[in-house]
Write a structure and sequence with these properties.
Shape: globular
CATH architecture: 3-Layer(aba) Sandwich
Strand content: 25-35%
Order of helices and strands: HEEEEHEEEEHEHEHHH
Number of strands: 10
Amino acid sequence: MARILLFSAYKKVCKISNYYTLVSIKTQYGAQMKNRESKPISGKLLVSEPTMTDFYFSRSVVLLVEHARKVGTIGLILNKPLNLRMMDVVKEFPTNEFPLFFGGPVHPDRLFYLHTLGPSVAGSVEVMDGLFWGGDIDDMKRLIDLNIAKPEQVRFFIGYSGWEPNQLDRELKEDSWIVTQGDVSTIMSCNADTLWRNIIKEMGSDYAIWANFPSDPVLN
């Protein structure tokens, strides 16, 4: 019994130690990190800081597709795949093997998509050079049915992530997110399991220790 109590106490100490280690790191490098942050605009990525425990956004990477101070922000979580395919969810879609991702908790009953098909999908909005979101769903169905649109060119999402006007700015001031630049290749062909960690590492030595911080310090 004494050993069990000692082990339990040890785990609590580890949790506290890990938490304050991260706080120390964030304090030490805080000024450098803030100097490197970009403004949250369409085409940028939001990377959650490692202590975020939100059910939806823990260890998440979010692509911003719309951002306006007076209107708010819309984004899609890139690294939350669902164990579903499009053909399992949308029955009227052509038979396909396109995977489905969880884009966020807003409107989980609606379908959203990113693609690199450009003007082939009428009404698409360009998020960054070569990457578009939305557009005519019938155009998308036709391109898939003709085998023109490939899985590496389209990514489907259920739901999206939304912030009210000024909400994201407040969360950035609270150090909940880091804003960084993404690229089409990373966004469309990423390995969801390692995306958060890989982007953190690519952001440089100031952030490198974040990549190895345990998702749950008490289990470390």
